[in-house]
Amino acid sequence: MVPNIVERCARIPELHVDVMQKARNRLDDLTKPLGSLGVLEDVIVHLAAMTGQVIPSFNKPVALMFAADHGVSEQGVSAYGSQVTEEMVVNMCMGSAVSSVLSRAQNVTLKVVDVGVRSRVRHPNVIVRKVAPGTKNFASEPAMTLEQAYQAVEIGFDIAEESIRAGADIAVIGEMGIGNTTASTAMIASLLRFPVDQLVGVGTGISEDRKRTKTELITRALQLHQPNSDDPWDVLTKVGGFEIGAMAGAFIACASHRVPVILDGVITSTAALLANRINPHVRNYLIASHRSSEPAHQYVLKELGLSPLVEWGMHLGEGSGALFVLPVIQNACKVMAETATFEDARVSNPHKATSGVQPLPSKPEAETLKSPVVRDFDDAEREAVYKVILARRDIRSFLTEPIPDDVLERILIAAHHAPSVGYMQPWNFILIRDRERLKQIQRVVERERVRASENYQDLKQEYYLRLKVEGLLQAPITICVTNDSSRGGPHVLGRNTIPETDLMSTSCAIENMWLAARAEGVGMGWVSIYQKEDIRQILNIPDHIDPVALLSIGYTAHFPEIPLLERVGWRNRLDLQTLIYHDFWGNREESKE
Q: Domain 379-579 carries which CATH code?
């Protein structure tokens, strides 16, 4: 039976090659010389292909650090004792390690995971997913069992997937484990069928004598165990490490969710090589931050087809090189997003003839993207947005329970983030809780409701009078949304020829509020039967400010399946197709050109 983790590792999507071309076209149209960002332009285009976003952006980076001990460290292959693994994990959790400092400085969520530290880690912030207290000494026996190899990879997969579900959109994956350069070198030698003596470096700073000992030890271990170079699981089992397996699992999880990963040094690259042997699509989602001073690193990067962004001679580990490079990548994406195109800036494009839109590569019709430009939301998030829109209802009956302050604040924030012409933000929100004022409002609304009913006859009048306004007194809060047409001065960008666009902006704020309330499980009822002057007087609103809407807000016992006006028989929703014209008013036939 195939283990579950093996099946999970098989699900990695292809790159979006059509989005890649669109991203290249935009880069070439920015107000800068062609190719002037150098290799960063290739990185941006690659990120677009990974994410499916023509303009990729990364606002929730995560750094995952996996730690484990190695039995082979008993052979003296490192300048440090094995106790340093636990001590450094504590240092990371305390915020005092290089990776901790860089993560904190860049607002990167840092998670430290114990997958095989020999002793109990003395810090509550470490995530304990221990496979075993370190691997065996592969100088004399296999480093782990096959079951442990599966377990290590699955742990890394799960940890990365948890972070992605929490919103992580780009990952730095690092490690800590005394002896892991020895394990990495052994794995590289096996996977690449490469001579050990060309791969061994000084690691944490060992002497030349110890380097020779390390080379001989790895050579003998490979002769002893004969790992199958064509079977990545066998290589991991015989000479690998738990943290290397966990990192491989994290790489695969990220790739399966189109989350880019920034590689660090030789050890993380070894894990990436392992992951890529498990599923060859992994390499499509990797970015090499730097080339370390370890000799083996260059061969791994070459095998993965990756070019490092920088060469600083680093060999620190713990994801440090990737964390140093992360802001460079984020800034490159900001340039892509915020730099004007020649057309936007109304600047003559000197290379338009050579940078015109290129034809997209051929692709099977079934694989063509439905919406290739922006993919900020996954399927579940997108469905939730439409669910809220279709479930919005005008509520007239409320429970008396108060709305928590944080819920009300989120609803108002949603309203305040509505689009507005010329960014004038013409709205204000009067939060009405005072019962006497609400009674005054209810009386003038009831008066106008009765007056307005005279405009209807027979059944229509009966239906109209069924519409209740008692919600004004039932709901724990009513919000008066106002519109200030004078905000921004006499000339506001975008409303010089259509003065009422400020009212349209305020309507957008109301709709945002309504949808946010529905998402919070809060009912909202729009009361629109009043004389503006009455409301101005009751709420002390200046004469030049319009009270656009009274919105009663509160929890309700039931959200109707269909809108209230349909339920009371007022009218039904119009057929959308009867409201769509093509190219000019009244034309219902779509052009075939």
A: 3.40.109.10
